Amino acid sequence: MTTSQTETKPIISMENVSKHFGDFQALKNVNLDVALGERVVVCGPSGSGKSTLIRCINRLERHDAGRITVDGTELTNDAAMEKVRGSVGMVFQQFNLFPHLTILENLCLGPRRVLGLSPKDARDRALTYLERVQIRDQADKYPRQLSGGQQQRVAIARSLCMEPRILLFDEPTSALDPEMIAEVLEVMTELAGSGMTMIVVTHEMGFARRVADRMVFMDQGEIVEVGPAEEVFSAPKSKRFAQFINQIL
Ligand code: ADP
Ligand code: MG
């Protein structure tokens, strides 16, 4: 396959994806293609399957029907996921930094252990991305010495240190005090502008309007509405989405 063919294909493709937890169906025939460089915001009520959807993309959950293809590899088993592990980064609601390591050490860990970078290369890379999230001066501190907003920016820098092609965000600002949300959204907005492929689960509709190429609205395990952000916000097609935005705005 030539490069141009690869580039025009979606970097993420979900076809008729379903996922059960026991008898409960958390995803119902989900279809979603994401193009290289596209920014997709996923919203929907609690329990609608948003986390399950993005966790299936990096195989933190296994789908039980349908096809998921990521960066050219169909996720048929864990070995397939290993092939694309480095393509996909994820930022969680909880920052999950190692408390006993400094910020710099937290960032060097993956590049050293997983990518095999030398200590110097890992450090240079970590400092570059700390600079990018505007927190380079905190490199030698421990996570507990940073605010929640700073810790989440570190978590974003840690993902960037692995130089993924796709970044998944699962409610990255939900655990933050209100005054810290903006600084994290600002970093994410900058990233979006840099051409990173992003899927962001968030209820921050201001961010969604500014950044999303497409909005996805989920309810009860289904994608109920999907479309360009400006269309979806100005004229929602489904009643459920209209009600949802009215509630949260
Ligand atoms: P959202 O992120 O939209 O709040 P989730 O994807 O976390 O929703 O969950 C969708 C549904 O699947 C919920 O009803 C949730 O309780 C259920 N669920 C999620 N993870 C598990 C699990 N590991 N075991 C059983 N049920 C789960
Ligand atoms: Mg969730």
UniProtKB/TrEMBL annotation:
Keywords, ordered alphabetically: ATP-binding, Nucleotide-binding, Transport
GO molecular function, one term: ABC-type amino acid transporter activity
InterPro entries the record matches: AAA+_ATPase, ABC_ATPase_HisP-typ, ABC_transporter-like_ATP-bd, ABC_transporter-like_CS, MetN_ABC_transporter-like, P-loop_NTPase
Pfam family, one: ABC_tran
Domain ABC transporter intervals: 12-245
Recorded family membership: Belongs to the ABC transporter superfamily.
Listed name of the protein: Glutamine transport ATP-binding protein GlnQ
